[in-house]
Automatic annotation (TrEMBL):
Its EC number is 1.16.3.4. It comes from the Bacteria. InterPro entries: Cu-oxidase-like_N (IPR011707), Cu-oxidase_C (IPR011706), Cu-oxidase_fam (IPR045087), Cu_oxidase_Cu_BS (IPR002355), Cupredoxin (IPR008972), TAT_signal (IPR006311). Monomer. Residues 64-174, 345-477 form the Plastocyanin-like domain. This is Multicopper oxidase CueO. It comes from Streptomyces asoensis.
Amino acid sequence: GMAGAAGLAAVGAAGATFSLLTGGDSGKAAAAEATGTLTIPDLLEGTASGGTTTYTLTAKSGTNEVISGVTSTTAGYNGSYLGPTMKWTKGDTVLMDFTNTLGAETTVHFHGAHIPPAMDGGPQNAFADGVTWSPTFEVLDEAKTLWYHPHALGTTAEQVVHGLAGMIIVADDSDASAALPSEYGVDDIPIILQCLAVDTAGDIKYEATGYRASGVGFPVLVNGTNVDSTTLGFTATRKRTRFRVLNASPADIMTVQRGDGGTLTQIATDQGYLTEPTEVTTIRLVAGARAEFVLDLEDAVTLQAVVTTGWIRGGSGTYDFLTVTPDATDSPADLPSTLNTITRYDTSAFTARTITLGQGTGGTMTINGSVGTTMAGMAMISTTLDAEEVWTIKNGTQLEHSFHLHDVPYQVVEINGETPTGVDLGWRDTFEVVGGGSIKIAMKFTDFTDDTYMYMLHCHLLQHEDEGMMAALMVTDG
Ligand code: C2O
Ligand code: CU
């Protein structure tokens, strides 16, 4: 439930619209019923055959009570809102049959995955209503939390806020993975946070301009359930419980903390394990980011989600979203003192580039001066296989942005002129760039080249992406 509100900020102008088909499923799985219990998205079982695991997903429309008593048109994968969790294992070959029944074109992007550009689900992979898209690739990623969502030009915000998003857990055989909780829904718990805007007719919006005055609700959802006036419950049957948190909001920064001010033991950032379990009091997640933490439970712990920026809901706010109550008698072993080895890049010989985030005319957004609302109009970054690069991401606006790069994990090597510390030393694929600020990130382009299909780099404030704050990255053989 809601615990406080303050502040106000703005996030650009209105973007593109399209209509989802009405009709279809209603209220299945992650529907926003205030049952008081945490809804856990289904785990999608794959079918293994001939060395390939196949997952079958259908993007469809439906309805959901995003705000209690108001029926909203929504969309989901295999259900009316959000999608099931997929669990991939490093080294496996996976194949996905994605069928589009939305009545509009879509794509499915595997956010954070290191996969070939033709399988990445960017705008060039758009497929029409009635079509099945079947990407296949080997899972090269280490253990981490990824997610999947649409990425077609101009419609990403619209499709994601209607519910098209799901989590991907990558498992591996590392010592850290063996030592950490991993039983899905039992001691390994997905938390998908969203802060939306919904008008009085139930239409879900991804920007609040023009709606704040007219009785619009700004629900905060946890796995699809509105927590504005409810604190959900989860009974932990293991003392040590792992949480994977995804900020799937269209814009707002969400911060997770304990209601009692205690610490969370953070174990992972976007792109996998930290070097060691790290005690933190807050986990600040920019749009698109993920983090993992564990709780060693003696007594009940209430988790709070803080809408830090208040772009969508017109003010920040603190929500008690989940009370975790232990009902366990086990005694977990100590956490491993080392989870991962992260060798920090020495960037002195890296190729340097500057990526400037800007605003154009007529409500457009830019990267390096180009409005990326079409593939042809985008700035194009061209690099070669195994190139090592260091990019300065310069925020030429006073708005805040979430910088996301496809294909390879990056290390943040500078934040507004300062050297990063603590959890900012973990591997990332999304990072906050404050208004007028800058970050430096370093990465190495490994394994995949393509002269036709491109990776994307963009702001993960979805409206900004749709308004053109997106560029293309081509990795060639050189
Ligand atoms: Cu989560 Cu290019 O996207
Ligand atoms: Cu932005």
